[in-house]
Design brief:
With 247 residues, the chain is an alpha/beta fold. The protein contains 8 helices and 12 strands. The protein is 35% helix and 22% strand. The strands form 2 sheets. It has a 6-stranded mixed sheet. The chain has a 6-stranded mixed sheet with strand order 4-5-6-10-7-8, with helices on one face. It is globular and about 50 Å long. This is Metallophosphoesterase family protein.
């Protein structure tokens, strides 16, 4: 099974369409969307329609913090621009779309794989996994050999060896990572809809569980068109600038 890993779509229709087309060319036969389907971007309804269609055909979908905020209201500490985007997004979605977001699980499992937006350690706390300490906490809590998550808008990969030692790997786009069956791995593909590592290309990954191979990808798309959608919607211009600058 070849699983397309897509996270942090952030209502960016152009980036999502490009990543889905890429995944189809890579012969993906399963899809996993690990949260933050909405927020920041200018096309939340279109993105949700697409994800809901994939979910109806068996795709894995879990809830992110922006998805939760859209149905339950933003948490204290969410910055003002994000709150503005959440309020606007709420007005763009149908009752059915809001119900879909509301009923999404925080985690999903498939075989020895776990899917979660943030850390598997207290998923609803929305902890950012930005180093080996947080990665180890997530892997210990998950127990699964493969953990796929998002929340962090740059690609990263962590490994917990069978002796308990932790390592971090900087994935290179297009390079095959061999997955050793005795280790645990935490895979963060990077953001489809709002990458923040200085590269404007959308992020996604493919995991082949039969061959035990993982490949990260960067997918160019019309980020200018996505930025214009943000501006046309009247959303804070900072979200358009992030798309243009990849930051």
């Amino acid at each position: 099974m070849r699983i397309a890993l897509l996270t942090d779509l952030h209502a960016n229709r152009q980036a999502l369409d490009a990543c889905l087309a890429h995944a189809a060319r890579m012969n993906a036969d399963q899809y996993a969307f690990t949260g933050d389907l909405v927020g920041y971007g200018g096309d939340p309804a279109a993105v949700l329609d697409t994800v809901m269609d994939y979910a109806a055909r068996g795709a894995i979908v879990v809830k992110g913090n922006h998805d939760e905020a859209t149905v339950s209201g933003p948490r204290r500490g969410m910055h003002a621009e994000a709150r503005e985007a959440i309020a606007w997004t709420q007005g763009q979605l149908s009752a059915g779309q809001l119900a879909f977001l509301d009923t999404l699980p925080l985690t999903a499992e498939l075989g020895n794989m776990l899917f979660v937006h943030a850390s598997a350690h207290q998923p609803q706390a929305w902890e950012y996994v930005t180093g080996v300490a947080q990665a180890e906490r997530s892997l210990r809590a998950a127990g699964s050999r493969m953990v796929f998550s998002g929340h962090v808008h740059a690609p990263s990969l962590y490994r917990r060896a069978d002796d308990g030692s932790m390592g971090q790997h900087a994935p290179r786009p297009g390079a095959i990572v061999r997955i050793a069956p005795q280790h645990q791995y935490l895979v963060i593909p990077g953001s489809v809809g709002q990458p923040r590592d200085g590269n404007t290309a959308a992020c996604c990954a493919i995991y082949d569980d039969g061959l035990r191979q993982l490949t990260y990808y960067r997918v160019p798309y019309d980020h200018g068109a996505a930025a214009r959608r943000v501006i046309a919607a009247g959303l804070p211009i900072v979200f358009a600038m992030r798309l243009v600058e990849g930051l």
